[in-house]
Design brief:
mainly alpha, 4 helices, about 70% helix
Length: about 160
């Protein structure tokens, strides 16, 4: 069942958010790969082996991010074609996806699995705190935007009797 042009329904909001989440995951992966892996040379996706293994892992990580972005953009194009895009849901999803990716990277990949650290040869506390606080802020803002984009979620102000 598709949405009528210009209408907003729960399905459109959910698909818009899903599209944004996929694009956000891919965008965060792209920024991580480009800035920290390639430009700054701070780490590879997998640093517990040889440099060659690190480069191969970076390539697989880059491919994952690319697939996520392309998938999100295909969904976005379909939503736009059907005039069913809920912009607030999409932007909220984008921030949710980027924040979730970054928090997962900072907690699970960096600390639990130890696949890599943000940077080597420095005190990591400031890097870890900054990385994870930015992730939480992205998640919170994304959650607020997504919640506000749901049909019927905006509070309706009514006049109080005798006020």
């Amino acid at each position: 069942m598709s949405a009528q042009p210009g209408s907003t329904n729960r399905g459109s909001t959910r698909r818009s958010t899903t599209s944004g989440v996929l694009a956000g995951i891919g965008l965060a992966a792209f920024v991580d790969e480009t800035v920290f892996h390639q430009l700054l040379h701070w780490h590879h996706f997998y640093d517990r082996s040889t440099t060659d293994a690190g480069l191969v892992s970076d390539g697989l990580f880059h491919a994952f991010g690319f697939v996520a972005v392309v998938s999100g953009l295909f969904l976005l194009a379909d939503l736009r074609r059907r005039d069913a895009l809920v912009t607030g849901g999409w932007v909220g999803g984008l921030l949710l996806g980027a924040g979730a990716f970054q928090l997962y990277d900072g907690l699970v990949q960096h600390k639990v699995f130890g696949l890599h650290q943000i940077r080597y040869g420095v005190d990591l506390v400031a890097y870890d705190v900054t990385w994870n606080v930015v992730a939480v802020v992205l998640l919170l803002v994304g959650a607020v935007l997504t919640r506000r984009s749901r049909p019927g979620s905006r509070p309706v102000r009514t006049a109080q009797a005798g006020a």
